[in-house]
Design goal:
single chain; seven-stranded mixed beta sheet; 12 strands
């Protein structure tokens, strides 16, 4: 019997190691290309509210995309990590309005909107380390976004779920567990990738 948890841990280590080798220029260049590709998504073109995140470390950069969305008049929500690793949300008011937080994160200043604020988003941009051709996402293992996805399902909310990745992070298969939910699309610097989520 395959140990899914161990398989995920090994895959995470591999992808985090690859990302650790990227330079600041690599990350910035990929982030600019990602923004251009993501803005081609019809779901983002018609979105009034997008739940995004502030990229950290070797993650594909989200700055250019968030700036472009805000310039379009889109309301951008950013996560705030709670003590139990659940996520609250605040509004993105620009790079000068981000404050250092736990685990090296940057979080929005200003009022907290509550964990349920994400249920009003038209698109949710998810961090990830990889996604497979069924749309199953490999996260970092903290469970914060598993809670977000469960909250969306419980509320009957159906935003477009989009993962931002580097080229080479689209895999044939990602180990999955019962609580994992597929995403609708992935964006890489070289293109858009759509999936057909399986019914749950």
């Amino acid at each position: 019997m395959i140990n899914t948890d161990a398989s995920k841990r090994a895959l995470r280590r591999r992808h985090l190691t690859m990302r650790s080798r990227l330079t600041a220029d690599d990350i910035e260049t990929a982030g600019a290309a990602l923004a251009c590709r993501a803005l081609e998504l019809p779901e983002l073109a018609g979105a009034a509210t997008v739940a995004a995140y502030v990229s950290m470390g070797g993650e594909p950069g989200t700055h250019a995309l968030r700036e472009a969305l805000r310039a379009r008049g889109v309301r951008v929500l950013l996560p705030v990590l709670l003590e139990d690793d659940d996520l609250d949300w605040g509004e993105d008011a620009g790079p000068g309005r981000l404050a250092p937080a736990r685990r090296g994160l940057l979080e929005p200043e200003g009022p907290r909107l509550g964990p349920d604020a994400v249920t009003g988003a038209d698109v949710v941009l998810l961090p990830g380390l990889a996604v497979d051709r069924r749309g199953m996402r490999l996260g970092r293992g903290g469970g914060s976004y598993d809670r977000v996805l469960a909250r969306l399902a419980a509320a009957g909310a159906d935003p477009a779920l989009v993962v931002l990745l580097y080229d080479g992070e689209l895999l044939d298969e990602v180990p999955e567990e019962a609580h994992d939910r597929p995403v609708h699309a992935a964006v890489t610097p070289s293109g858009l990738h759509r999936f057909t989520p399986r019914p749950h």
